[in-house]
Amino acid sequence: MSAETEVEVLRRRGRIVVVGASLAGLRAAETLRDQGFTGKLTMIGDEPYEPYDRPPLSKQALLGRARAEDTALPRRRDIDAKWRLGVAAEGLDRDAKQVRLANGNTVPYDRLLITTGTRARPWFHPEEAALDGVFVLRTRDDSVRLYRKLTGGVSRVLVIGAGFTGSEVASACRELGLEVTVAERGPAPLVGALGGVIGAVAERMQRRHGVDLRCGISVTALEGDYVGRLRRAHLSDGSAMDVDVAVVSLGAVRNTDWLAGSGLAAGPRGIACDAGCRVFDVNGIVTDDIYAAGDVARSPHPLFDYQFLSLEHWGNAVEQAEIAAHNMICAGPERRPHLWLPMFWSSQFGVSIKSVGVPPLGDQLVVAQGTLSEERFVAVYGYRGRVIAAVSFDGAKWLGFYEQQIAAGAPFPPEYRTVDRRTQTLQPVDPAFPDPHLPTHGATVTLTGHSPSERRVEFVPSHA
Fold first, then answer.
1. Does residue 265 contact residue 271 with C-beta atoms inside 8 Å?
2. CA-to-CA distance for 377 and 370, rounded, in angstroms?
3. Among 175, 272, 299, 308, which one has the highest count of C-beta atoms within 10 angstroms of its own C-beta?
4. Is pLDDT above 80 for 127?
5. Would the pLDDT of 2 be above 80?
6. Beta strands, E only, 243-361
7. Superfamily of domain covering 343-434
């Protein structure tokens, strides 16, 4: 047996621990077994449930068309794993190669995959967040509680934040016949993810469907009655409104707290890893036994100037998990890079919104098909003279073409003439993204810079 073959055999044995019983964690575990890993596999998750699908929780589940308990992810195969559910990882000892759990137990590993994902950003005032009627929406239990409240006779709902999740919740509320107010500190819905030009379309769409949309407004306080039930919200313009339910949709927090002191390049922006999903330490040196995948990971992408991207996308979680699993048990020459092209979708107010690429990187925009006024179009984003993203409102059939354009580094503005004669010009405009230094709601792709260690940066927690 050659030395290389011996290495390959050894890598298919031993102990692999996956921290994060998520979509990424499950697909990685399945890939490990598919590709010949025969060793001990342990799955750690802080929720008491095996991996389930999250997108339906803000869509079908809130409308009663699907039960949250029926969102378990289908299994591709048996993974023969030991499940440690309902207990969170609390620390990592890289020297001892152990994961410390919240119950005091430790789990040893030879190789570690981190797929801990994100959690909903909570309301900034703990006492107000604890009021009966204040919700976030991220987990299965969150969805069950919110659905029961929305269908339990409430009359007025406040959604704090008009990103994708907040907009989907507002859409579900209107479909349930509820009065809903949306408070968005940015100039328009979806502005952090798609820019102000497209945000203006989303704004018209919400208002036409009866949403009381208030942009440029923050919620400053939530007020309860004497028994702890939410009764009123105070806004930054000095006004107040009576509400029964407040859904806090202020974006996501990456689950990296448990890695404090581990020596890994992990922080509020995620866990820095290379294109092969290997995690960096704080000195920018890549590890060979710790990997990351899914929403918690951030890695460089050659199509986007090697920016480190954090992607909150379903498809990215699957693809990156499969790449990480492959690389964990393969010798160096057989490892593959994670070059998935970001894709995202949302359904709200009867419109299917889909994107490909990285819209927030765009410095110019053209409407290549359809018209903004009809809310049925494809908008193409450019960056430094090439196509880097496209977004469709009820026009997804074109996205496959633009995916090819992005991958090929096609010039921007597009050189071809539109096939939709209603679009008279391809004159670029500023997509009107907000100042990147100011917080916004709902970006599904975060540009996190080039340095994996960021040792010169002081992270200061932000509030709503």
1. yes
2. 4
3. 299
4. yes
5. no
6. 245-248, 252-254, 266-267, 270-272, 278-280, 286-292, 297-301, 307-311, 343-348, 351-357
7. FAD/NAD-linked reductase, C-terminal dimerisation domain (3.30.390.30)
Name the one residue in this structure whose structure tokens are 């354009």: 405
The answer to whether the beta carbons of residues 157 and 247 sit under 8 Å apart is yes
Give the helix/strand (H/E) hosting 34.
helix 23-34
In angstroms, the CA 464 to CA 462 distance is 7
State the DSSP H helix or E strand holding residue 303, giving kind and residue range, or none if neither: none
Q: What is the pTM of this model?
A: 0.89
CA distances to 54, 150, 161, 263 from 144, in Å: 12, 10, 21, 38
* Residue pLDDT, tens place only, 240-291: 999 999 999 999 999 999 999 999 999 999 999 999 999 999 999 999 999 9
- AA identity, residue 447: L
Handedness of CA 302, 306, 307, 309 (dihedral sign): positive
- Assign domain 121-251 to its CATH architecture: 3-Layer(bba) Sandwich (3.50)
CA distance 203 to 274: 38
Residue reference for tokens 């989303």: 202
Q: At what angle do helices 164-175 and 196-208 cross, to 10 degrees?
A: 10
